[in-house]
Amino acid sequence: MTDQHAVAKGFESVYGTAPQVVWQAPGRVNVIGEHTDYNDGFMLPIALPHATRLAVALREDGVLRLHSAQSPDGSGVTELVLAELVPGSVPGWAGYPAGVVWALREAGHDVPGADLYFDSDVPVGAGLSSSAALECAVAAAYNDLCGLGMTPTQLALLSQHAENEFVGVPCGILDQLASSCCAEGMALFVDVRSIDPAEGRTRQVPLDLAGAGLVLLVIDTLVKHAHADGAYAERRRGCEKAAALLGLPALRDLPYADLDTALERLPEAGLRALVRHIVTEDARVERVTALLDAGELRAIGPLLTEGHASMRDDYRISCAETDLAVDTAVAAGALGARMTGGGFGGSIIALVEKDDADGVAAAVREAFAAQGWAEPRDFTVVPSAGARRLLP
Ligand code: ADP
Ligand code: MG
Fold this sequence. Notes:
By secondary structure, the protein is of the alpha+beta class. The chain is 40% helix and 23% strand. The chain contains 11 helices and 13 strands. The mean pLDDT is 96. The structure holds adenosine-5'-diphosphate and magnesium ion (MG). Magnesium ion (MG) binds next to helix 3.
């Protein structure tokens, strides 16, 4: 893992001076609560130990320069003029960080340009939110350097706004909230209707996996099926239509106890399945949260596996690779497993006893090999800290 001094050195080698600060913001996995965000519902992410580190020095000439150790254009530096930033104007990876600076200025903060140097160990495009890690690192560093006084929740909202409006990706608030607001040893219960922690709904929930002798095994299938974006939009529209037919502001407003009656009122089987996933998924998030509050960590396993079945059968967003990874992990002794992220590939998580992690990962690798599929990438994680300053 690249440490903060190496990131500061990397900055110096590109820009020839020392950075003022080094910040990092993590990727995330969602323990449970998939596709509930745009239904105003509940989610339970943790931050990964994997993070994007960002070294920054402000500039006074209205120029923004960006370099990423992972950028596809190699050692290049992207140079932008602050006054020319408009949505859609910056193609490629630089749009994410530039979008945050644009969003800050649009929100009325007269922030200056800067030299930015990124180095990340968050797997990119694996459903682990490397994009939110980029954004939240920029938002937190600017907040610090310019004394903006924004809360982690406000920085998450601003980062989401940047991804929605500047990059043009219609993501929910999950990824940015996790990257900005998570805490070590904790999961973050998120109620999308009430994300300000002062209101008491969105809150930290103890998830001391290490203390319980558990780990979360993340297995990246390395698969991303092409129709994912269209399928996301279609599910989202379906949920909005179902809510309208039921006379509800959002599917979150349908209590679990009323699910069966509501399903009888919906004309299409497809809509019924969407509603069933969202309402049961919100209920699973609440049940998992209650178990964690009670310290019953192992008991959440079956709920994770149940959540996968719901995504596979009702929401229909899993695929052969994620299904095989989940089934194999459970058969090999995982306490529970599910696909995490938007679907059609990406990563799965499996809750495993620490000593079983290697065996479960090996079983999934063997199952993939038997299908002739590329070897998946796996690593274990524990709940880690949200965005934080590393230097000085
Ligand atoms: P995810 O957020 O799940 O990793 P996304 O498609 O939302 O997947 O975001 C991935 C994109 O974010 C990449 O294609 C790239 O443009 C950008 N990105 C993320 N991390 C980095 C990085 N360290 N360096 C350059 N670009 C990055
Ligand atoms: Mg992303």
